Amino acid sequence: MIQLRNIERTYKTGAGVTYVLRRINLDIRDGEFITVMGPSGSGKSTLMSILGMLDDSWAGEYNFLEHEVHKLDRKKRSELNRKYIGFVFQSYHLLDNLTVYENLDVPLSYRNISRGQRASMVAEILDRFQIVGKKDLYPSQLSGGQQQLVGVARAVVGNPKLILADEPTGNLHSSQSKEIMDLFKKLNDAGTTIIQVTHSELNAAYGHRTIQLFDGWITSDPANPQARIPAVATP
Amino acid sequence: METLIQDVRYGLRMLRKAPGFTAVAVTTLALGIGANTALFSVVDAVLLRPLAYQQPEQLVSVKVEMPGINLADGGISQPELDDFQRRSGVFAQVSAVWPISANITGRERPERVEANAVSTSFFTLLEAKPALGRVFNDGDYRPGFTEGAVISDSLWHKMFGADPNVLGQAIRLDTDLYTIIGVMPPEFRHPGRTLRQDVEIWVAAGYAADPFPHPPVRTQRFIPGAIARLQPGMTMAQAQSRLDAFAAQLREQYPTDYPATVGWHLRLVPLQQVVVGNVSLMLYLLLAAVGAVLLIACVNIASLLLARSSARQREVAIRQALGAGTWRLIRQTLTESVLLSLCGGLLAVPLTFWLKNILLTLVPSSLPRLSEVAVNGRTLLFVISVSVITGLLFGLAPALQVSRWRLMEKLNQGARGVGMASHQHRSLSALVICEFALSLVLLVSAGLLLRSFWKVLQVEPGFNSDHLVTAQFWLPVPNDPKNNPYPTQEKVNVFMDEVLRRVGALPGVKETAIGGGVIPTLNTLRNAVAFTIEGRIGAAGEAPTAELGAATPNLFHVLQTPLIRGRVFTEADDDKGEPVMLIDQTAAERYWPHGDPVGKRIQPQFGRGQPLRRVVGVVGRSRGDGLDAPYAPHMFVPARQINLNTITVYIRTEASPEALAEPIRRAVQEVNPDLPVFGVRSVQSIISDSLASRRFALQILLFFAATAMLLAAIGIYGVMAYFVSQRVREIGVRMALGAQRGDVLKLVVRQGMSLALVGVVLGLVTSLFLMRLISRLLFGVSSADPVTLVILTALLAAVAFLANYIPASRAARIDPMVALRHE
């Protein structure tokens, strides 16, 4: 499903160029549940942004399904994002001034879907996540766990092939955390590819494979035993 | 007190810490407060300050109304004046006021002066004291004119070089000798209508002997007006009701002099209202407009403060944790805003002097009491009050926000959600909506005045004003008919012929004519005159009236006013010929809607023993009372058949009025060396001057409306930029969820435009309601003129769109990655 070849991401700083990701090579198959781990600043979130096509300023080759993403312009990449990818954020990022129902409708509103069809999709997801009773509540009226439940529901409402979850349980206590992870497991079992970033070994255990990042390099990838930090880590 | 000082000290420190914001806010406020104060100084002098007489609230003007013959301001006869004083029981004192032109002769060169014929009670009624000598008293009373005259400070300086020995000097006025008995102080102004300028000389009369009709007859209402002081302690309402009863008594006592069909009655008008005239609506409109501009500036500053205050949430939270109560926090915020506006007010004081001077150069010189405009204690009090009110106004929204923050903590809104606090959002939105509503109201009022002005300029005056110059002179009316140099119509006619011949021979002069009551603002024979139509008995309330004018045979040719039917006057229409008359199209259509007036005979009711006059022709209609006055019916008598005193010479010429003034003066004075010539002006400049008030209101209002629109645009830009800065994460999330740049652009523009449009709709509704109040200032457009409303709504919406587009396009460029990390 995903092939990354020599992906590099740099930032221009006053002192010169700072590398955030270095020569990333990664293969992800359809239906996999991948965990990305690493200390702060290792490039996990940047990797997620590139995978989610929110970031354009990288070099290398990125193949997503049958698309050569590196050859696509911003608009085409944005289309791929809308069609195939769902995001779950650590801070939930629900829109404060919208109800649960409206929050779920937001990603659909950016697709070319009729109002009626959208309504049935939202109704189905409310039902599936058993949050029908909360559809008219605002985020501030929900607990953290409930908010993240809505966050996950929002990520899957458009039936994405890939869910990118950036520390989805970072702000939740353990029981809520388990609930969300079980939910991811169910989604993965149903065929959705999931890539999660986490600091929790417990959450990592839900995945099929854990990739370790350090200082922008992949230092460990069970599918690629050669991956390691080179002798000189920085240019 | 100590805490207040602490608040002030802290407030000053906060203002110092943000010099950019402080400078912008203080400058905006200074300009706003300064403009308000400058306009207030004019409104205060003209409208608010009581007249400079003792107990001015007791002073009234007595108006005679005769609705039955369409007379709104009929004259008063000598017996009536006497009755008001002695029998009505309403007035402590009554005086006639009669603005007249007079020629002062016997000096180096003759001068036309503005005189006023009053009663001997005039000055004592006003309780006005002279600077030199004395004023009239009861002992001066004569049935005709008194011998004494009181002069103004300006005439004393102009004609007598401020000679302290002026008292007792003789002065020849319209060939009659008067003795100067007093000089009024410079601040004394005649209270009421004048002909051209402030009154320079007052003479007193009993109106019961020459040159007035005698013995006095109740129906000869030749005195144009009267002022009076009410009995001590009497209110206006009481006075009016007593006067109504008295009028009823007179009508009963003299049924033939007061026929029921005429509807003769008396109305008291506060003298202040008479002095101010019809400018009060215009001035209040401008004051409201400049107030609205300041309010919009306040809204802008409020939204800036509101945006800034959210950056101070931490500070407020710490203060709350340390025990500061809500009221204390509100007070701190209000102290800061009032300090800011007081700084603006301080800077506004010097600005006020400057703006007042600019304003005075724009104000039409016809505005009453202009000489009283000054920056004084009242103005400074206004600055302080406006500053404090302004500070409280724009500090209110941030202060209320501070008072709500504790509640927010309870709700524990914070990192979980995305977006801004909804109450803050609501406050800012409400401010933007108000701003747009106010701006549209100002734009609509300016737009309506602009359309009105345009319509006035489009008006066909009924004559060609190009290369048309007028000159005026006054034929004296001596108190003793024996001194009259022009005692017969024949002598007047010879004089007019000679003047026309000599002026016509001047280089550059093509044609000349004499007339009156034709050109806007030159309608010297104003006051509609009632007339009867031979063989027609009018129903009650239907007595025909028309503005009376005079014309030499070629007047309508010189003016290029078309002849519609019949003929114009000829040389044969003189004192020996048949009494004839011309009417204009309006009179013809109104009084002979289904027939031809030519050949009919009418009898105008002016002077004694007016003959029946045959209508010989109908001329095109003209705007005799001003371009923006409705068409009024006119009738003209031959100048050779009426004893004209104010003579206006119309001259079609290639030369400028400046170049013609001296040759005309010489030409007239070759005929009569005692006649001063005045008012040598182009007709276009007369028309232009007649529109001065309208032009002034328009200029000021356009400026205010443009400023309001700019401020509203800046306001919505600032608020939307702030909204966007508060929504960076939200926008990032939306982009992560698939929003494209176009979607973000739409999102922000839609939010801004919905605020602007709500404001515009609110402004539209308010305009529809408020503009009815200014309908008296409009001409040719309705107060709900759809063209104006549509164009200005579209204009304001377009400006709002532009102001929204900039922050929206910035929002669309937000990098979702950066936005999502922005935690």
Describe this entry's structure for a reader:
- The complex is a heterodimer of chains A (235) and B (823).
- Chain A has 235 residues and is of the alpha/beta class.
- Chain A has one domain (2-220): 3-Layer(aba) Sandwich (Rossmann fold).
- In chain A, 32% of the residues lie in helices and 28% in strands.
- Chain A is built from 7 helices and 11 strands.
- Chain A has helices spanning 44-51, 74-84, 100-109, 115-128, 144-156, 174-189, 201-204, and strands at 2-13, 16-28, 33-37, 58-64, 67-68, 85-89, 94-95, 162-166, 193-197, 209-214, 217-220.
- In chain A, the strands form 2 sheets. Chain A has a 6-stranded mixed sheet with strand order 6-8-9-3-10-11, with helices on both faces.
- In chain A, strand 4 and strand 5 form a beta hairpin.
- The radius of gyration of chain A is 18 Å and the shape is globular.
- The two termini of chain A are 31 Å apart.
- Chain B has 22 helices and 23 strands.
- Chain B folds into 4 domains: 1-56 and 279-412, no CATH class; 57-277, no CATH class; 416-459 and 693-823, no CATH class; 486-673, no CATH class.
- In chain B, a hairpin with an 8-residue loop joins strand 19 and strand 20.
- Mean pLDDT of chain B is 85; it is low at 407-419.
- Chain B is an alpha+beta fold and 823 residues long.
- In chain B, the strands form 2 sheets. Chain B has a 6-stranded mixed barrel with strand order 3-4-9-6-8-7. In chain B, strands 15-16-21-18-20-19 form a 6-stranded mixed β-barrel.
- The interface between A and B is medium-sized, with 30 and 27 residues.
